Amino acid sequence: MPKTTANKPHPLKHPDQRVGVFIDVQNLYYSAKNLYKKKVNFGAIVKEAVADRKLIRAIAYVVRTESQEEQPFFEALYNLGIETREKDLQIYHSGNKKADWDVGLAVDAIRLAPSLDAVVIVSGDGDYLPLVEYLQKSTGKQVEIVAFGETTSSRLVDEVDDYIDLSADKKKFLIGDKRSK
């Protein structure tokens, strides 16, 4: 499976393709934070994922906390033309916290697939493998992954039609945390 490289058009991507971009925000946020201690440039990622094709929908799956401190981030996504699907952070009696959007992202990708030619999943989570297989085999869609190489499932990379490794161009896809300067 060929990997997309800068300045070289990908043979499976053409201007008339209708594209949907589905962003697992938690996956990217924690990958960037743990690997590089930086934040993610979601605008640059969506632009790269769309690759001069027709963007139909870009949806980011985000988590709300009680403090609402993430609200400016949600507004920034909106200003970039990225819709947000919000879910409250679940806090259990044990103190464990959970906020998982895998099923919601998968349902939206399947629901929107009839109006798309290519589905771009912005996550390296191997849990999306059944979704990738379903979209390719049952609906005939082109499926692409955009994620950081160090945190991307190798099985996922092997299955998709294209893979963009964000780690290959960190300056383009990461932004420093202004508060840490």
From TrEMBL:
PANTHER family the UniProt entry points to: SLR0650 PROTEIN (PTHR35458:SF8), SLR0755 PROTEIN (PTHR35458)
Q: Name one Pfam family in it.
A: NYN
Entries under Gene3D superfamilies matching the protein: 5'-nuclease
User: From what organism does this protein derive?
Assistant: Candidatus Magasanikbacteria bacterium CG10_big_fil_rev_8_21_14_0_10_47_10
Name the lineage.
Answer: Bacteria, Candidatus Magasanikiibacteriota
Domain of life where this protein originates: Bacteria
Q: Give all residue intervals belonging to the NYN domain.
A: 18-166
Listed name of the protein: NYN domain-containing protein
Instruction: Fetch the InterPro entries from UniProt.
Output: LabA, NYN
Q: Which GO MF terms are attached to this record? A: RNA nuclease activity
